[in-house]
Amino acid sequence: MTGSFVFDPLLPWAVIAVLGALALGGAALALWRGLSGWAFRALAALVLVGALAQPSYQIEDRAPLTNIVLMLVDETASQNLAERAGVTAEAADRLEATLLARDNTEVRRIPVPDGEGDAGTQLMTALSEAIAEEPRGRISGIVLLSDGRLHDLERAPDLPAPLHLLMTGQEDDWDRRLIVRNAPAFAILGEEVELTLRIDDDGAAPGDALTDIEISVDGSEPETYRVPVGEDLSLPITLPHGGMNVIQFTVPEAEGELTDRNNTALVQINGVRDRLRVLLVSGEPHAGGRTWRNLLKSDSSVDLVHFTILRPPEKQDGVPVNELSLIAFPTRELFLEKIDDFDLIIFDRYKRRGILPSIYLDNVRNYVENGGAVLVAAGPDFASADSIYRSPLAEILPAEPTARVLDESYRPVVTDLGARHPVTAGLSGSETWGRWLRQVEVTPTEGDVVMSGISDQPLLILDRVGAGRVALLASDQAWLWNRGFEGGGPQLELLRRLAHWMMKEPELEEEALWAEATGQTMRIIRRSLDEDVDSVTVIGPDGQETVIPLTEETPGRFEAVFEGPDIGLYRLEEGDLSAVIGLGPAAPREFVQTIASGAALTPLIDSTRGGVLRLEEGLPSVREVRAGRPAAGRGWIGVTPREAYETLDVRQTPLLPAWLVLLLGSGLIVAAWLREGRS
């Protein structure tokens, strides 16, 4: 039990002070005037002023509360390197026993696991939560058992007690790590992008000047190079194909380094085309010609060269050529010398008139077989004797005209195969599409019929020829959709997909396998024209194989979800198809820097006068220190006794009860009156 004097004033202290000053002034005036009762007056005023303050003697029955020591134990991934996990657990057990052996002490042991995702070590977050759950007035010390590598220092709380770091790791630890900078998410095909690589040795490294690095693209056999350590390396890269390109850099594990988890880096770059170069050859002016031109010119990524035959050679009307021709069209340059510069050639209602000799058209055939793309938009010309089919292009065209032109209305329909083909899949609502008014009858010889017209006659046929691609649209009426005839139709989307398929964009391949990653989860996607596909074999970073069955989600699209157990490069295989994908960072945040260090925590520790000690030098002893004094030294750490208590009972005894105030006050006033009355 403890006793103390307390006050419970009836009036504000300022008012009591003013009244006391007035009473003191009155007593001083009485003394100055020589009144003999001034002393009694002063004592009476003191009693009355004291009564207003209501002094009491308070006795408290107190129960002492224990001091709390917070002990945070780092159990993140970097603490599993070498022997850190065992050393940390043993030190935590011994330190907890030492603290509990002290009088009036409790220990809150708080394990700190890996943060969600790739958040790393969240020591300060865990410390903030622990402090919030305990009375600050009872926390006498905070001890961190960690390698000192944390990733949330900005969340450090206001600390009520000394903070100490008992650091794991060894003085002679060293590690080699690979860093990739300036890795863009997108790059233009055919243009170089520059990556910056750096290989750093941290800790007590052996001082190697050179090391090997292996570079692999899309899981191919890696190529090995000898590179310097500790220098920035500029690596120019030209992407080999469109779509996702996965580049893996690996530095072989060196003898004695802590881990190889930070020796690999994955860079995933999406290859995109800068410009689409299109050559549009119009055989004659017609209503759809301007539609083709406007459609292609509306896309800022398309460079269009439009070749239109305004005056065929057989037309003789006497008008001088210099009054009709704007410029002499460079047919030889386009079709012989520069043809490989184009990504797509479109023949719109073109027929043979001697303007393009057979050698030019034969060069177009070679262009397709070597990887080019040709789209034929056929009109009545395709069924005539001068049809472009009656040329070297017949070897690559997927259908033969029957010489019939069907002039009747119909609605284009996506075929069953077309519902699975990426060019036409998902183009629903054909019952509401506007009608077309003409179709050329053709007999398919190769390729896939993805749209049909009158009496299920082939309307759109797609084919692969050599390394290139060919599409035949057996109608010149697609422009009706653009004009909104009877509601129109998806002309823009259809032609966009068609052009991208012919450009071999990966997302429009008929037979394709790829995966999309979200954290450690990948969605495996297989597109096929077949009704059934085999299971996909997933090969993890450790070489373990997992067979994943696929489910058809939409026609021609099969999917499955796979949770990758490890971070790294995964290879997917199904038949002749393969793909690679990286899950998570190749070097998780926990392994970016692995050498134990207290540098990040030192400013915070110094502000509480705590210390940083290595566990390899032994477990420090624990001492009591007063608040504000140094709380750590060689071989010891300090805790500050808080002397907190809980009040069980309070008793107050008034020093000036009302009856005593009345008795003393009236007595002293009467005494002053009597004293002065005798004078």
Observed structural traits:
alpha/beta, 679 residues, five-stranded parallel β-sheet, 20% helix
| SS summary, helix count | 11
Cα distance spanning the termini: 52 Å
The secondary-structure class comes to alpha/beta
User: Uncertain segments of ≥5 residues (pLDDT<50)?
Assistant: none
Strand neighbour order, sheet with most strands:
16-15-17-18-24-23-22-20
How many strands in all?
A: 37
| Mean model confidence by pLDDT | 86
Biggest pleated sheet: 8 strands, mixed
Q: What percentage of residues falls in helices of 4 or more residues?
A: 10-25%
Assembly state (oligomeric)? single chain
Identify the overall geometry. Answer: elongated
Task: Report on the architecture of this protein.
The chain is an alpha/beta fold. 20% of the residues lie in helices and 35% in strands. It is built from 11 helices and 37 strands. It has an 8-stranded mixed sheet with strand order 16-15-17-18-24-23-22-20. A hairpin with a 2-residue loop joins strand 31 and strand 32 (577-583). The mean pLDDT is 86.
Task: Describe how the helices and strands are arranged.
Elements: E1 2-7, H1 13-32, H2 38-53, E2 55-64, E3 67-74, H3 84-100, E4 105-112, H4 123-132, E5 139-146, E6 163-167, E7 174-181, E8 186-188, E9 192-203, E10 210-217, E11 223-228, E12 232-238, E13 243-250, E14 264-272, E15 276-282, H5 287-297, E16 302-308, H6 331-337, E17 344-348, H7 358-369, E18 373-377, E19 399-406, E20 413-414, E21 439-444, E22 448-452, E23 458-465, E24 468-473, H8 479-482, H9 491-502, E25 512-518, E26 521-527, E27 536-539, E28 545-548, E29 551-554, E30 557-563, E31 568-574, E32 577-583, H10 602-607, E33 612-614, E34 621-624, E35 632-633, E36 636-639, E37 645-654, H11 658-678
Parallel strand pairs: 3-4, 3-5, 5-6, 6-33, 8-14, 15-16, 15-17, 17-18, 18-24, 34-36
Antiparallel strand pairs: 1-2, 2-37, 7-9, 9-12, 10-11, 10-13, 13-14, 19-21, 20-22, 22-23, 23-24, 25-26, 26-30, 27-28, 27-31, 29-30, 31-32, 35-36
Helix pairs in contact: 1-2, 2-11
